[in-house]
Inverse folding.
């Protein structure tokens, strides 16, 4: 399992996709797909997703939405064939404030896993490193892939 911290954006891309229907006839349908992009700015996120979509789709597409993701760390399998779905995992920890009161802090992570049970296992490994914690939720996301910024040489 590898982890990556940074600033991430949730990006929606719309394009016309050709698919075969039950009668084996080609049907073109407008689809909107969601991706996660590592970037410093909205402009960087759009550049990264544009570069990826040009190489993957080849045709016309449009970036229809971008927003800053509510997670700052991604845990993904090093084996690409293990990555089936992406889950948002929320872990709540308790800290003591300066005045002695308990303060609940929620952290959200993006985890790649083949099932909710597999995501829970990864979440258990994450929460092992955090004192006084609990897994609050594990939710399957609509993200199809995560694109990372290319490292400068």
């Amino acid at each position: 399992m590898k982890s990556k911290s940074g600033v991430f954006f949730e990006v929606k891309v719309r394009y016309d996709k050709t698919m075969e229907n039950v009668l084996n006839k080609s049907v073109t349908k407008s689809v909107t797909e969601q991706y996660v992009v590592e970037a410093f700015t909205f402009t960087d996120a759009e550049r990264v997703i544009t570069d990826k979509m040009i190489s993957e789709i080849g045709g016309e597409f449009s970036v229809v939405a971008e927003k800053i993701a509510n997670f700052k760390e991604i845990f993904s399998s090093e084996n690409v064939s293990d990555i089936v779905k992406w889950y948002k995992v929320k872990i709540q920890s308790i800290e003591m404030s300066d005045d002695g009161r308990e303060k609940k802090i929620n952290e959200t992570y993006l985890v790649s896993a083949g099932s909710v049970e597999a995501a829970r296992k990864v979440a258990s490994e994450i929460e092992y490193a955090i004192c006084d914690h609990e897994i609050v939720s594990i939710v399957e996301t609509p993200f199809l892939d995560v694109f990372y910024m290319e490292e400068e040489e």
